[in-house]
Amino acid sequence: MAQVTPLDGVAVITLDGHCGSGKSTLAKQLAVKLDWSYIDSGAWYRALTWAVLQAEAAVDDSSQVLRVLSEIKLTSASDGVVSVNHQPLRNQLRTPLIDKHVSAIADHFDVRDALNEGMRFLLSVDDVNGLVADGRDAGTIIFADAPLKVFVEVPVELRAQRRFEQQRQTNPDVTLSQVQDALSRRDKHDAQRGNAAPHPTDESFILDNSNQTVEQAVGRLLTWHKQIFAAG
Ligand code: DC
User: Which of 12, 127, 231, 232: disulfide with 4, CB 3.0–4.6 Å?
Assistant: First the structure.
């Protein structure tokens, strides 16, 4: 069992998983239940993509991306909402344009290092009780010392079905096979990022998020939280 190691004195729980596994919903609710801060690492990549596109810089040129990053103030509030130069970004980050370019930004390892530093800086914010972070590499790289690491698993067919049901509310023409193809492409792309590709560590708790409600899954996370942090 993992030791409770202080990360600048802040307790950290990480939830990683593939695209569409529901990890963000769970992480957000867990953070609310614990009154901890939430970090949506995917939103950091999306916000930087937004800023790079605004600056008309090239997403596939890491020096241009890093230059944009050095020129903006990228921050995250305790509810996970990311701001660029104090402008909170919400719907702006969930557009087909951002979806199209965000992977290119996330492919640059030097950019990943810089964003990871920014996320770790949140550990030093004075009034943080604890942090719940979700992403692909939150437990493997960003907060590799986190005492509780969770890997959220859902079979690809079910992730596609759930995403299809969401998407057809706004796009009645979308088909299940389109959604399946897009998801498989993203999984394949994510898998090419070496150690930053989504995978559990030896210490990770595996949460099967296929056949339970959000409440049940959060209940399970709270049990693990108690098990790990009460022991410290
Ligand atoms: O989870 P999401 O769809 O918001 O992630 C957006 C993109 O950022 C996606 O291409 C995966 C990438 N990402 C990453 O590489 N590492 C993370 N920790 C989080 C997201």
Answer: 232
152 CB less than 6 Å from ligand 1?
no
CA of 44 to the centre of ligand 1 (A): 8
> Is the pTM for the entire model greater than 0.85?
yes
**For residues 133 and 37, is the Cβ–Cβ distance under 8 A?**
no
Please state the atom number of ligand 1 nearest to the C-alpha of residue 106.
15
Atom of ligand 1 nearest to the CA of 138: 18
CA 178, distance to chain mean position in Å, is 24
Task: Kindly report the protein residue whose alpha carbon is nearest to atom 1 of ligand 1.
Answer: 42
pLDDT of residue 39: 97
The answer to whether the CB of 196 falls within 8 A of the CB of 136 is yes
Q: Is residue 139 domain-shared with residue 173, that is, in the same domain?
A: yes
Cβ 136 under 6 angstroms from ligand 1: yes
User: Given ligand 1 and candidates 18, 40, 92, 102, which is best to mutate, with the most ligand atoms within 8 Å of its CB?
Assistant: 102
Nearest to 182 by CA among 208, 198, 164: 164
102 CB near ligand 1 (under 6 Å): yes
Is residue 20 within 8 A of residue 179, CB to CB? The reply is no
Q: Does 197 lie in the same domain as 120?
A: no
User: What domain range includes position 89?
Assistant: 40-128
How many residues comprise the chain? 232
Q: Which of 62, 95, 128 is the last residue of a domain?
A: 128
Looking at 112, 128, 144, the residue that finishes a domain is 128
For 48, the token pair is 């930087």
